[in-house]
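Cont'd.
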Amino acid sequence: MIKVQNLNKTFGEIKAVVDVTFEVAPGEIFAFLGPNGAGKTTTIQMLTTLLRPTSGTVGIDGLDPVAQPLEVRRRFGIVFQDPSLDQELTAYENMDLHGVLYHVPRKVRAERIEVLLKLFELWDRRASLVKTFSGGMRRRLEIARGLLHRPKILFLDEPTLGLDPQSRNQLWTHVKHLNETEGVTVFLTTHYMDEADRVAHRVAIIDHGKVVAQGSSAELKAQTGADTLEGAFLKLTGTTIRDETAGSADAMRQMARMWSRGQRR
Amino acid sequence: MNVIFVLWLREVKRYLRSRPQIIASLGQPLLYLLVLGFGLGRVTQISGTASYLQFVAPGVICMGILFTSIFSGIGLLWDRQFGFLKETLVAPVPRLQIMAGRTLGGATIAIIQGTLVLVVCMLAGFRPQSFAAIPQAFLFMALIAIVFAALGTAIGSTLRDMQGFQMIMNFLIMPIFFLSGALFPLGNLPTPLAVATRIDPLSYGVDGLRGALIGLAQIGVVLDVVVLGVLAAAFLILGAWAFSRIQV
């Protein structure tokens, strides 16, 4: 379903992704793990038509994201790592807009929005502007939105960041259910190794832009002699802490936040 | 079609929900109208017009449309910062439709803003030559709005942060406004200035709107429509091209 061969991405001097090769079978839940700045998000961006690879090939359901972006976009849904909601619209309007963008027919749209907003306990707040939501509520709304259309492939880039255990549980149960009943292929990243261990059929570990290991959770544990996936992860990637360079978008977002705070008070 | 409509609706909703901003953005044209209209009005006599206020009001309306439409295009920059842009970029929708929805939305709010300025001008004592002139005035307001909303989208697609925005403001938007003949008549200018005013797209908008509202067109209404129409098409193509190249 996803086929990546010798994928490279360089930003000026920085090699973000180096010679990455892996394959995800249809109906598989695949976890892509790595420390901060390892190249996870860059890889996802290349798979989802947002970035052009420097070299290497990507196949999404047999299609090339660079040559046929529209066809590729029809096949996947994504929950981004950082916010992507329109804060000046209500929760319902955000969902509805997404439904229109993904050509979900009006009637089905209304039904699914209701089901998903209820599932993530946002139904009572559906008419509130997103800017009045707490961080956790926004996150839940992003996830609900990502599940609104029924894609063949679901990309989840650190979907549980900032969620309480209840919502995390809800999310993974739902994702597993989708995978089992509809055969949705799931490509996820997370920093919570227990989550990856629980839901993923197969795992790849990436560090400094390179894939350092891949296989089932049990295989990785056996390979490194660790009892847990977290232990295996630390053995493979070391214990030093990584710095992520902030892009201009992050810097601006911070400035915008300061600004709006200044105006409101 | 649906996609263009929802993205258009989004722009309009966001505009209508930010009432303080609507009032704030009326402030600048109002200041020009009142200070120049009444301040310069006593010492300035422009042939063919009853007063300087009559002369400057169409220019001030153009100013309102110019700023609102360009800013709406640059609003892309905010969507990039707050992440919503990505949501639209990964959607299985041709980018041309996304760009069209946004741009038409921006143009629509610019027309609303221009109408508000027109109302304020009339409250301040401005009188159009006849009410039959109003539809023609709206044709020009719409053309100006589309030209600059599309230009704004093209700029917004290439900018990465707010520093670039300051540059655009000082070296593009302000010159477009001041060289457009919004504040002074275009006749009898020194050659370099005359050439600059003819290159400025807004000159044709100001001229056309002034022709419609007070019957004073120095370039000629027909030429104004043709130039604005061609520019609208050109900037829409440019905007669509720039938008299609965005990477996150």
